[in-house]
Amino acid sequence: MIFLPKNPLRPFLYSLGLSFGLLFGMEPFAFLPAGIGGGLCAFLLFTELKDWPLRFQIYWFLFLSQLVNVTVFFWIPSSISAISGAGTFISWLLFFVYGIFSHIKLPIAFYGWKICLEVYSKYKIYNGDSLLLRWLLFPVCVVAADMITPQLFPWYWGNLAEGSLAFSQAAAFTGIYGTGFFLLFGSAGLALLRDTGEKNAGIVAASVLSFVWILGGYRLLTATEYKIPSSTPNTEDGYLKLSALLVQPNTAPAKREYAENPEYLGQAMSRNLEMALRGSLENLPPPDIIFLPESAVPFHGTDMGEGGAPNESYSSTFHGLTLYITRKTGADLLYNELNQFRDGLKNQVTLLSSETGQITRYDKRRLLAFGEYLPFESSFPFLRSLFSETSRYIPGEKPVPLLGFRSFHRSVRPSPPTPEEIAQIQTPERFRNPTGFPSKEEGVTYQILPLVCYEAMFPSLVQNSLREAKKGVFTLLANPTNDAWFSSKTEAWQHAGTAKFRAIEFGLSLVRPAVSGVSLAVDPYGRNLAIPIESGEIGNRAILLPVTRLSEEGNTFYSRWGNIPFYLYSFLTLLALSFTDFFRKNGQKRTDTGPTRNV
After folding, report:
1. Active-site position among 241, 355, 453, 505
2. What tens digit of pLDDT does each residue of 57-83 get?
3. Domains defined along the chain, listed by start
4. Is 421 a catalytic residue?
5. What is the C-alpha radius of gyration for the chain, rounded to an integer number of angstroms?
């Protein structure tokens, strides 16, 4: 029997507050006060656990890791079963293990914070029992742990600001980590309002929250309003404006048993073809580019292989379908495919030009454990029998920007399909000829930086893509996604909400076609360009897509300087403590040694 050394009520309530703050602060609820409350509860929990014995601190963080798991990420066990084919027991076991390692950043932050307090006390830099010191060190240590801890399905403290687009604008200057810093700085500081001696510091904390929100609101207020052109592509107002079509086919999850099922594959191809053609015919101006999601047509690819010999995943029907869509609509096509190479199977995003026939491919770099590859399989081969649905993909080596070109004078307008054409889709050679070879003076070049599925949750991957991208070229982000496995609206929105931050951080529009939702498109400020397509729906969206030039220095302060501002204001925060204590001690000395008056 475990006898608790102190009353557990407060740590329990603070743990609940933190967990529900995470849940309701992020999408789909996106309630900023909940995010602020979660940050406040995290600070109060750290303060409460500071004086508990080490053994019980570990118990509390084990409890907290599982509480966050079942409260915020409750959809993971069923997702593990669907993706990997694992049984219920294995899925839940992996879920609990995942909770310990994924949320280990919480005890790392706590002990980093606690060590800093002890160092300040030991060397008499500042009183370690000071509530002010605890507050100022808290956001520095917590965000630092956020940055150094590897995460499988990452969440960041900055995600708690998803409920306010104005507050989220801080990401353009400081990134997701800096946004988390300011949210924690302000929310934790609210605890000082109840302390008479530190009330002024609490007011400063509340003022910081308000200032970041007001500054972000001003950025939105002065943001560009996009005029609708009579035709596209158009380069007015410094933007490339493209007409885009976002397709969400809601294809059923691609289980291995469907790989050779002609009815399943035929339905997937027919639905994507119909939605792309119908969307092109019904919207004006017609699309310049069509976005298909990840696994829109699963299992297959359009690369005929080395030496012209078809590889195992090549599908002439899928190949013909992609060529036919570009030929009939006059639009470029971005789609996902699987292609077999000598060293393994690659998850790829492809851009097919309707005008030149040029094809460029990007290989997914960060693969999903237990979904796209099996960790430790070489050492423990028996794991394959437990996770039978897990694929054997290999990661890409470096990011490849997908280059496209659009003529200012459209040579092909969408036209209805004919039975004769449909019958010939299985023969891709029939549609291989491009529609024209325009000169560079007659059009505009653009590039797409792909992020496949949950790659969009990692800012570092975008930074790597920017290094390889061509500067001075109109650039956008694309995040083709397959969330059909998860069967959870909460997961779909959590995933989408995190991806939107990449647009704000790097000042680039982002298009996110998801096979089952949530599909959306946002501009460089994170503003929705159309109503998102909800999870589980079938539909498409016509979008006027503003595309910005990629500056040599970067399109935002964050893209230029990365996390350097976080290191700077963290250093200034720690330095300010020393000066504050110095002036306090000098003030006390003057008071103690000053002249006395006889009464």
Report:
1. 453
2. 999 999 999 999 999 999 999 999 988
3. 9-222+560-589 (no CATH), 236-365+399-555 (3.60.110.10)
4. no
5. 27
